[in-house]
Specification:
Elements (H helix, E strand, L loop, with lengths): L3 E5 L3 H13 L3 E5 L2 H10 L4 E5 L1 E2 L2 E2 H9 L9 E5 L4 H10 L3 E4 L4 H15 L8 E4 L2 E4 L4 E4 L2 E2 L4 H11 L5 E2 L1 H9 L9 H13 L9 E4 L3 E4 L8
């Protein structure tokens, strides 16, 4: 699955260069020249990582970082700060506010690529083929390709199990329908296709105590779905 990056920077020369380089290395890159444009993109889909300039025409990247970390949807979004500010205090404040890494300008594209790879690797470690993902009473057994609720097997089709696995591998992270379809089939979902919603409904009927009031697979209106990290009182 191609990782999706959002680059917020008003320097068009830099975004063209960096965006092109990252695309050549297998990443999907979207750009925004202002914080307002970045906010608008984040409303529609959560990227795998955010590359954020600190000095933007309509605001300060540090304030925006604070805003992101205060929002449940973007609290754990991997974030790399890019800035021409050279003061160590800016770096310290950025990291204290929740940035995962900091790269001063000017920088070599290869260094940026290495940092992006490390950021994504830390944020989404791959589960082993025999690993069991546990969330309270729900278990997702990757080796056996079976989900169990309170020890009892869940009646899921192969596609439904794969969809559940995609969500369970990224607990707490909002995934858009496009991101889910990319993970499942390798191509984007048509905007009018509601098949994901149907599968989610069927999964909920099996794994939720009350499918009408789900606590495991949650809908984020206008954005997609999120697999809850804490689902049961004992989790």
């Amino acid at each position: 699955m191609m990782s999706r990056l959002l680059l917020i920077d008003d320097d068009t020369r830099l975004t063209d260069m960096v965006g092109g380089y990252l695309r050549q290395n297998g990443y999907e890159v979207e750009t925004a020249p202002t914080l307002a444009a970045g906010r608008e993109q984040l409303k529609h889909a959560t990227p795998d990582a955010l590359l954020l300039d600190l000095m933007l025409p309509d605001g300060d990247g540090l304030d925006f970082t604070r805003e992101l970390r205060g929002d449940a949807r973007t609290r754990r979004l991997p974030l790399l700060m890019l800035t021409a500010r050279g003061e160590p205090m800016d770096r310290i404040v950025g990291l204290e506010l929740g940035a995962d890494d900091y790269l001063p300008k000017p920088f070599e594209p290869r260094e940026l690529l290495a940092r992006v790879k490390a950021l994504l690797r830390r944020a989404a470690p791959e589960a082993g083929p025999d690993e069991v993902l546990r969330f309270g009473r729900l278990e997702v057994d990757l080796g056996a390709r079976q989900a169990r609720l309170a020890g009892q097997p869940c009646d899921l089709t192969g596609h439904q199990f794969e969809l559940l696995t995609v969500l369970a591998r990224s607990p707490g992270r909002v995934l858009s329908r496009d991101q889910i379809m990319d993970a499942l089939k390798g191509h984007p979902l048509e905007a009018f296709d509601r098949s994901i919603d149907v599968h989610i409904s069927r999964i909920r009927a099996v794994i939720e105590d009350d499918p009408k009031n789900p606590r495991r697979v949650l809908t984020v209106r206008g954005a997609g779905y999120v697999f809850a990290k804490k689902q049961d009182a004992e989790a």
